[in-house]
Amino acid sequence: MTAPAARPAAIIFRKRILPWSETFIAAQSGAMTRFAPVLVGYSRDASGAAYLVGRPQLLLDEHSWFPALEKFLLKSAGRAPRRWLRAIADTQPAVLHAHFGSSALPASRIAKALGIPLVVTYHGMDITVRAKTEAEAERRRRAFAAADRVIAVSRFIADALRAAGCPDDRILLHYIGVDTQKFTPPAAPRAAHEVLFVGRLVDKKGVIHLVRAMAIVRRTVPEATLTIAGDGPLREGLAREAEALKVPATFLGVQTPEQVQQLMRRAAVLAGPSIADHRGNAEGLPITFLEAQASGLPLVVSTSGGTGEGVVHGSTGYLFAPGDEAALAGHLTALLGDAALRARMSAAAREHMVAHFDLRTQTAALERMYGELRGERPAR
Fold first, then answer.
1. What is the number of domains present in the chain?
2. pLDDT, position 78
């Protein structure tokens, strides 16, 4: 397989291609115009296969007689399988871009074997969770040293990288962005009292605080309902809490990107009650919050990690301290009870995303950085 001659290949590396929750990697690679993206990993994750149809992919599992052994050798001895390397080399790659810190070291070995620059993007728990041992901390430092650029998806992640020992001159703050041509406001009226949550049902998402806040909201806005799109180990406990508090909560489970898009066009407000969990795991900057604003959906989100970096408090939504259920309830009540306020925030949210977080603009900046790593002179 050879990439189109008109565009050099950009190898997009993730150990599994791609979990359903990582649509942002697919979106970013799909928005490239100067480079031809080729997704490279160990194996295919069936949960995200639908949004990679027709995308060039090179999997170790399909280029090795003994994939498990080859993975072990890559991790332990730094030896990449020859057949896999030849297949990657055949695309004439110009740069390798790995997502998540856990992919950095194996990606560095591939990049070194191919003689191409390495870019690594850190998104959240891959750097916010504290290293448990000195050996783990040393692996992080080796990954930083191997990368030509280390991308932070928020200022919060950039600070975490510095604290972990990443040289400041390698760090690049780069917001991934959102497809503002795909995520657009609806033509039809919204459901006036529906609060939406989108994400995995795990501790750091803080959904328990949202369920409890909704019980407070319903004292003033009895029509208020909660829709939860996503799944995870906390689902049953959250459903029991909602039932005990008499909060009308609909648990939809995992939704396709298209279904999420429709939910964002229907709801009145999106809530993001994120917290840092016991390991220090905190959000980088959820793409969901950007997609919602591009859809004209006002936000009420916590300031945990980098969650608030895409929100203009009082203009595109409201921010509150992590775990403050009273503040969360107060902001939700204000929005659900004031159609004119929702309309103003909807317009401001959409304008903010188009001006500062458009996927095409952000991806063009990323590709300029790729070009500079190849030795291209920056465009004036």
1. 2
2. 79
Q: What is the pTM of this model?
A: 0.90
Note the pLDDT of residue 3.
Answer: 47
| pLDDT given at position 379 | 54
Order of strands, sheet of 36-41, starting from the edge strand that comes earlier in the sequence = 57-59, 36-41, 9-13, 93-99, 118-122, 149-152, 171-173
Rounded to 5 degrees, φ, ψ at 192 are -70, -20
Chain centroid to Cα 98, Å, comes to 14
E strand or H helix that includes residue 151:
strand 149-152
User: In the chain, which stretches have pLDDT less than 50?
Assistant: 3-4, 380
**Cβ contact 253:230 at 8 Å:** yes
Whether 156 and 242 share a structural domain = no
Are both 229 and 127 inside the same structural domain? no
CA-CA distance, 281 to 42, in Å (whole number)?
Answer: 25
Structure tokens at 125: 């728990």
In sequence order, the β-bridge partners of residue 269 are 195
Alpha-carbon distances, residue 334 vs 76, 328, 346 (angstroms): 55, 10, 14
- Four-CA torsion 182, 187, 193, 198, nearest 10 degrees: -10
Whole domain around residue 207: which residue ranges? 194-356
For residues 216 and 155, state if they share a domain.
no
Q: Which amino acid is at 43?
A: S
Q: What is the mean pLDDT of the chain?
A: 93
90 touches 369 (CB < 8 A): no
- In-domain check, residue 186: no
CA angle (122, 128, 134) in 5-degree steps: 100
Residue 1: the pLDDT is 52
In this structure, are 287 and 334 located in the same domain?
Answer: yes
Q: So what's the pLDDT on residue 4?
A: 45
